[in-house]
Amino acid sequence: MNGALRLTGRGLRKEFDRRTVFRDVDFTAGAGETLLITGRNGSGKSTLVRIMCGVLSPSAGTIALEGAGDPHLRAGLVAPYLQMFEEFSPLENLQIGAGLRGMHFDAGRARELLERVGLAGRLHDAVRTFSSGMKQRVKYAFALQHDPAVLLLDEPAANLDEEGIALTRAVMAEQRRRGVLVVATNDLADVETFERRVDLNAAR
Fold this sequence. Notes:
Strand order of the largest sheet: 5-6-7-3-8
Order of helices and strands: EEEHEEHHHEHEE
Structural class: alpha/beta
Helix content: 25-40%
Number of strands: 8
Radius of gyration: 17 Å
Shape: globular
Number of helices: 5
Distance between the termini: 35 Å
Strand content: 25-35%
C-alpha cells in the first residue's frame, strides 16, 4: 500500500445551466481509506464521482491525486450509467479498455479477472446478450484491469444478486489494502466501514 497516495478535493462546485448542484465540497482520503459520498437523489453524487475520475470538470475548485501519476489513468469506475461496448465480448471490452488507457493488453490477466467476477463461461459472448447483473460484473473487471490507485463505485450493488454483492465486498476489501476506495450510495449496507464522508445534502 502506498502511504503517500492521497485524493483531495478543495472548494468543489458544479453548476448546470445556472443551477448549482453542489458547492464548497472538500474532502481528503488516503491509501487504506474509504470515502463515502451520500445525499438525496439529485444531490450530485454521480456528478461528483464523474469529476473525481476526470469525466467532468468542476465549475470551481480543485481535485488532485498525489502519489499516483495521472489521476485520469489511475482511477477505475463502476457505475450503472457506464456503458460497455455491447457488440463486443467481455474479453474484447477489456482489450479496448487497455488501448484507451495506453497500456499493454494482458489477455491472461483479463481472463483471470473475468473468471473472478463469474463470467468464465461467457468470455466470447456479446455483452448485449447479458443480463444487467452480468454487465455490472463486466464493469468491475474493466475497472480493475489496470490496478487503479483510486476505485470509484457509484451504487456498487446495482443489479447484482447475493453472489455479486459478495464479489463487491471482496473487491472493496482488496482496494482498501492497495489504494483509495470511493463509494457513492445512500444504502449504508453497501459499505462495511468507511473513514471519510461527504454528505452532499449539506453542500447546496
